[in-house]
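Example A, followed by Example B.
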Amino acid sequence: MRRVVLSLLVAALGVTSGCAYSVNGTPVSAGVLDIEPPFSSGSPDPTSESDSPDANAADEYCGLLSWKDLPYEVRDKSAAPTDTGYDPQFDQSCKWQTSVDSLDVGVTLRFRSGRPITLEQTNGEFVVEDRKVTYFDRTTDTSVQPSCVLVMDYAGGGVGIIVIDGSARYGGICEQGKKIAEVLLAKEPAG
């Protein structure tokens, strides 16, 4: 009888430990879903037309991605981005943010017309539909939330993508960014 009970306990322990998952990072308060973007693109030309955002272009860029394109569970997949226009250094900025347990996860996009966006530091690249996407994987950097920062030339300018996800529920963070790049390229407006 003891062997049967002991066997059942060992089996139950094996099942429950097999269902566990690890969570990276630390909880953050609402509204903090962002890291200092490690983007660079030279100093802006003060007379450049790209320094004055075009509202129609701004709406166009933010409308290219939706909750339906993201792996996160939200009540309303047709909801607008969580925030737009929050980074004045870019022609358009958009954020999709939600909570998983006590962690904020999501995606931020930054668009710039007329010139590319580059990364100050990189540790990889891949090609999506003949377009080079450079990235900086920060999943093990303890000074920021687990994230992946990606950039590519886009619509005659550039786009910066930051995926922040310490939940470890939705696959690799840079793989999430690669899928977002695929969605954006499939919907790329003429530049």
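Example B, a separate protein, is given below in the same form.
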Amino acid sequence: MKKLLLLLLPVLFLLSFTKMKHPYHVGSVEFNYNSKSKTFEVTGRFFLDDLENALSKKYGKPFHFNDEKYKAQLNEALKNYAAEYLKLKADNTFLKVNYVGYEEDNESVNIFLESEPLNAPKKVEAAVSFLYNLFDDQMNIVHIIVKGNRKSEKLVYPNRYLYQQF
């Protein structure tokens, strides 16, 4: 029975990336401090269909990443969505995080953001609740990198806050 289960797990994992509805609601967000620009470069990666559905639910209209005519609407919606569902604080000061753009990557979407400039922080706090408006089992893996020191944490709905010391 164990062997059968071990054989089926990889198959289920691979099926989660097909056009079928995937069984896991997971995303990742990386806050990478760039010492040259003195900003946090932020990249969020989410399943394309989940993000479309979350935006549609939030804003009450359809969004389609694979359709060029939705590009302007998607940029505006993602800018507003990120402003509401992602907050960043460094050394006890809230940072403005600006939307840069997005890129489709097969079954996922990468969202790019950048913070206002700051000196290398010793303490970083973040609030990440992407897709919490859609799924009550959403999990976001959050990575914070400062001076090459990477710290990661898993946030599972409803937990959205994390704190890291560098």
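On Example B: The chain has a mean pLDDT of 90.
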